[in-house]
Amino acid sequence: MRLPLPRTAIFPGRYLQAPDATDLLPDLAAGLGGKTMAFAGGTAMREIIPRLERGFARTGAAFQAEQANAECTDHEIDRLASRVRDAGCEVVMAIGGGKALDTGKAVAYAAGTRVIIVPTIASTDAPCSAVAVVYTEEGMFKRYISLPRNPDLVVVDTAVIARAPVRFLIAGMGDALSTWIEADACRQACAPNLAGGVSTLAAYALARLCYDTILEFGVAACVACREKIVTPAFERVVEANTLLSGLGFESAGLSSAHSVHNGLTVLPETHAYYHGEKVAFGSLTALFLADRSRALIDEVYAFCESAGLPTTLSQLGVSSPTDDELRKVASVACVEGETIYNEPSAITPERVFHCLRMADAYGRERLRSISKSV
Ligand SMILES: [Zn+2]
Asked: Is 4 inside any structural domain?
């Protein structure tokens, strides 16, 4: 007899978001233990670390910073974990984009410390999750580390996020756009989430709130980011990209949009595009796979067009894909263990191939009619 999976949801210990939240970090770190080692990429080393050094000097707590390499590799995790152990630190603070944050999560786990995550861009939903992605020294995907718990604290300084290029925010909306579409597929199929169970009502509701928030406020948030200003709409979208999407994907489940993303990575032309940009096209494909209503399909396409997310393969650098190339994308999206099998309908590489072509053709058709009507 197979027992039903439990309803399960996992969360970071605390989430804090505000303009200039960076200035709160010394006191927050003191609450978690005290002696802190921060890891940051080159930009954050220049722009954030001096400010933190001044803040920690004010509190008198021990603080040191170390530049992290660009990739999250096993070698880098081992190197930084021994630095943390040798210095006797109790708190690891990871500052930067997705890879720096994943390095910090993995280092804290290896060194047995608490971890504070400080994203400087809102381009993915990685900050709140209990997953780290490890790459080879050459930058190829190697493995996922499933951590036993989510970060202790996630601190988002919206003044810092607003100064980052708007394309990061747009890519984050692409990742967030998929959250409810994938959660809804998992709900219909009673498919597992990433927390070892099935979705709760809470996770599903947060995934839907994520979708509604970016559709309503996404375009205004992009305008604010281009102007480098923090508005209420900008705050909402940063929360949707970071917290709502993070809780949603992890606790409500992934399905085909992320598998199509993984398939698209076999085309070298797509490597110049961010995770969320490829996931957005995965969501469009998912709409056709799941035979969604015309109203929903047009709503999602219209949002992508207005936000600047790709709706055609040529907008992902793939200007004239051959059927062979797209069949390869489809077959990688359908490898064993992919979350595409969380869809409620039967999945075959041939069906995925047809829906990939449909998503691209529908996007091109809409762009043609938009340009005719202008
Ligand atoms: Zn994602």
From this structure: no
Expressed as residue numbers, the domain containing 273 is: 165-369
Same domain, 176 and 92: no
Q: Which residues surround ligand 1, an ion (CB under 5 A)?
A: 175
CA of 278 to the centre of ligand 1 (A): 9
- 35-58 pLDDT, tens digit each: 999 999 888 999 999 999 999 999
CA of 99 to the centre of ligand 1 (A): 13
Residues of the chain scoring pLDDT < 70: 1-2
pTM confidence score: 0.96
| pLDDT value of residue 301 | 98
> pLDDT at position 334, please?
97
How far CA 12 is from CA of 87, 116, 122, 363, in Å, comes to: 26, 10, 17, 37
Phi, psi dihedrals of residue 199, rounded to the nearest 5°? -65, 150
> Residue 83: which CATH number?
3.40.50.1970
Q: Nearest-CA neighbor of 270 among 326, 343, 342, 351?
A: 326
Do 189 and 108 share a structural domain? Answer: no
Distance in angstroms (rounded) separating the CA atoms of residues 336 and 122: 31
To which H or E segment does residue 238 belong?
Answer: helix 232-239
Distance CA 39, CA 36 (A): 10
- For residue 1, the model assigns a pLDDT of 62
**Does 320 lie in the same domain as 210?**
yes
8 Å CB contact between 52 and 40: no
266 located within any domain: yes
Which residues have a catalytic role annotated? 175, 258, 261, 275
Q: Which of 132, 162, 192 is the last residue of a domain?
A: 162
CATH of the domain at 325: 1.20.1090.10
Residue 96 lies in a domain: yes
Question: So what's the pLDDT on residue 71?
Answer: 83
pLDDT tens digits, one per residue of 95-148: 999 889 999 999 999 999 999 999 999 998 899 999 998 888 877 777 889 999
Distance 30 CA to ligand 1 centre (A): 32
Q: How far is the CA of 275 from the centre of ligand 1 (A)?
A: 7
177 plus 323 within the same structural domain:
yes
Q: Of 140, 162, 184, which residue sits at a domain end?
A: 162
The rounded Å distance from CA 174 to ligand 1 centre is 8
287 CB contacts (<8 Å, ≥6 apart)?
181, 296, 297, 300, 359
